[in-house]
Design brief:
11 helices, flat
């Protein structure tokens, strides 16, 4: 492959958060053009993203472990615990513990990037405990990480209704609006992109988002 092929393939892997193959391709491109500043910047950005993703995964794994310890179980045993508790859902305490167990397993799946399985478990947790704020928060994050920004926004809005003071929820909602706005921008749907950037700014004033909004408006003015 030539330089451009390696760069395009590396960027495609980066968008899917497959950092190993992304860096492999970008470094192959760098070997062809060692002095190219753009590829150096892309490699540095990819390394930073990979590090951040690793830290986030570890944080989720730690949370799952702590939550499990809080109800007297081990993360490794959560499948067995869920099956046992499902037999006794008429008991209020067992029902509550089952909801937490589903949440714990969902967080574990999230830590591994298995978002569809995580969302399924958060659904179960919320079905058992409709006001389970933590489950709404994690489900929203999983939807966002899975690229389903509409559902992420819906969940964050529900969380604000349940608990307006939930930690950083407005900031997280702003981030998802910005992500969806970027997606619309890439699709050249500048009107919707502009709307989302404006909504993001309502929840979290941010210079980068303001710049994106101005870019979207400038594109709209061209047409």
């Amino acid at each position: 492959m030539d330089f451009k092929d390696y760069v395009n393939q590396g960027f495609a892997f980066l968008q899917k958060k497959e950092f190993g193959p992304a860096l492999e391709n970008l470094r192959a491109a760098q070997k062809l053009k060692p002095d190219n500043q753009d590829i150096q910047n892309m490699i540095r950005m990819s390394e930073e993203m990979a590090h951040a993703e690793s830290q986030a995964s570890q944080s989720l794994a730690d949370e799952a472990r702590h939550r499990a310890e809080s109800i007297g179980i081990k993360v490794e045993d959560v499948d067995k615990v869920i099956e046992a508790l499902k037999l006794n859902q008429n008991d209020a305490l067992a029902k509550s513990k089952l909801s937490i167990a589903y949440y714990i397993r969902g967080v574990t799946f999230s830590s591994k990037g298995e978002y569809a399985r995580a969302i399924a478990d958060y659904n179960e947790a919320i079905n058992l405990e409709p006001n389970y704020s933590h489950a709404f928060n994690k489900r929203a994050q999983a939807h966002s990480d899975n690229g389903d920004f509409d559902k992420a926004i819906e969940d964050f809005k529900k969380l604000i209704q349940l608990d307006p003071n939930y930690n950083m929820v407005e900031s997280q909602l702003a981030d998802v609006y910005c992500k969806r706005g970027r997606a619309y921008f890439d699709e050249k749907d500048f009107s919707r992109a502009s709307d989302d950037f404006e909504k993001a700014l309502q929840f979290k004033p941010d210079s980068t988002t303001r710049e994106l909004l101005e870019m979207a408006k400038a594109e709209m003015a061209k047409h």
